Amino acid sequence: MNLFRRLTILVPYLWLLALFLLPFLIVFRISLSEPVLAMPPYAPQFDIGEGWAALRESLSQLSFANYVWLTEDALYRNAYFSSLRIALVSTFLTLLIGFPLAYGMARASEGLRPILLMLVILPFWTSFLIRVYAWIGILKPEGLLNQFLMSFGLIGEPLTILNTDTAVYIGIVYSYLPFMVLPIYATLEKMDYSLIEAAQDLGCTALGAFWKVTARLALPGVLAGCLLVFIPAVGEFVIPDLLGGSDTLMIGKTLWTEFFNNRDWPVASAVAIILLILLVVPIVLFQNAQARAQESGS
Peptide bond before 44: cis, by omega within 30 degrees of 0? Predict the structure, then answer.
């Protein structure tokens, strides 16, 4: 029985080792190399068959020069800052839209909740790429949105939305909205709404009761939703590539350019490692906040 338990615990660790740690080490090793005109396009190569002396010689050729170069190049600094800015603004906008939706779903009748939940997850039944392409037909100058606004006389000429940061915000908010709604809904659905009545009986206004009771009880879902939106939005590639313009600078597009256009795998790997480190920080902070909340609750 103890052996079975140990094997059960060992399985997820083996999964993480095979699908996270080993790929991470491979990418990190490439980031310490130099680009060459070969296949694969980096050097030195590790070949254990050549002996340990050759392996030590290859290890001595590795360096952190790519990381130093990234800190000195303004393009990559701007790409990181722009990605963080777009991800933060998109997460905030998604929260503004997602929280009322989740709150309305949680306060709806039990018979209506499954229908509303299905409507939230319904976009996942369609390909992500097709949904992003659909926004091109909506936002382009002769698209549905401009035709609708001009037909009612709200605008005199088409708005320029496509190929701007605004289009990127729209695409990210639309694509990741379910990831914000679902965790907040899961938290609010379990809430005891008699606490709000008790707070109002004790003198709280409706807004005060919402802020002191509902918002605080929904905080775990809000944090989870923000992480689920922010983390993939930072490294997003498809949305800024299709909806953004030439001035839309995000690290996902920069990473793709280094890998496939410039074929500079070492620099691209260094970019990916730094991006991973930037994304690990909010996860660690979220876990620490959860641990403190559990300790204070117990």
Answer: yes
Q: Which helix (H) or strand (E) holds 9?
A: helix 2-16
Q: Which residues touch 48 (CB under 8 Å, ≥6 apart)? A: 55
- Of the candidates 109, 297, 96, the residue with the CA atom closest to the CA atom of residue 184: 96
State the sign of the Cα–Cα–Cα–Cα dihedral 265, 266, 270, 276.
Answer: positive
Say which amino acid occupies 56: R
Higher pLDDT, 139 or 198: 139
Specify the residue for token string 């280094």: 258
Q: What is the DSSP letter of 143?
A: S
Ramachandran bin of 160, using left for φ above 0, alpha for ψ from -120 to 50, beta for the remaining angles:
beta
Span 157-192, pLDDT tens digits = 889 999 899 999 999 999 999 999 999 999 999 888
Q: Which two tokens stand for residue 13?
A: 């660790």
The DSSP-derived string for 65-128 is HHHHHHHH-HHHHHHHHHHHHHHHHHHHHHHHHHHHHHHHHHHS-TTTHHHHHHHHHGGGGS-H
pTM for the structure as a whole: 0.86
- Which residues neighbour 41 within 8 Å (Cβ) at sequence distance 6 or greater? 35, 263, 264, 265
In three-state secondary structure terms, 43 is strand
The mean of the pLDDT values for the chain is 86
Give helix then strand counts, H and E, for the chain. 16, 2
Q: How many CB atoms lie within 10 A of CB 147?
A: 12
Distance from the Cα of residue 71 to its chain's centroid = 23
Backbone angles phi, psi at 32, to 5 degrees: -95, 5
CA 122 to the chain's CA centroid: 20
For residue 1, pLDDT over 70 is answered with: no
Domains and CATH numbers, the chain: 76-262 (1.10.3720.10)
> Distance between CA atoms of 291 and 204, rounded to whole angstroms?
30
